[in-house]
Design brief:
By secondary structure, the chain is mainly beta. The protein contains no helices and eleven strands.
Length: 111
């Protein structure tokens, strides 16, 4: 049972990245999924969640209108499209379901 994030990197302010989270070992389609980030020196911050079926989504105010969460149940994969990135988006991004966490992927926004 695991979650594996990918797609992080360094980008300039205003740029975009797409994160992926590949799930395995459990019935991905039956679980709500979330993205959580942790910036240097700060606690974890929930940023977005998506429900199982006809997907309902939720966003933190800090990312609303810039980030889009989605899922492909056939591929057991969760995504986070991040647009108009800001330096304050710099963090390690984790995907999460219940008590299962990935290893995280680093996103750095800097000029």
């Amino acid at each position: 049972v695991q979650l594996v994030e990918s797609g992080g990197g360094m980008v300039q302010p205003g740029g975009s990245l797409r994160l992926s989270c590949a799930a395995s070992g459990f019935r991905f389609s039956t679980y709500d999924m979330s993205w959580v980030r942790q910036a240097p020196g700060k606690g974890p911050e929930w940023i977005s969640s998506i429900a199982t079926g006809s997907p309902t989504t939720w966003y933190a105010n800090s990312v609303k209108g810039r980030f889009t969460i989605s899922r492909d149940n056939a591929k057991s994969t969760l995504y986070l499209q991040m647009n108009n990135l800001k330096p304050e988006d710099t963090a390690v991004y984790y995907c999460n379901s219940a008590d299962l966490w990935g290893q995280g992927t680093q996103v750095t926004v800097s000029s």
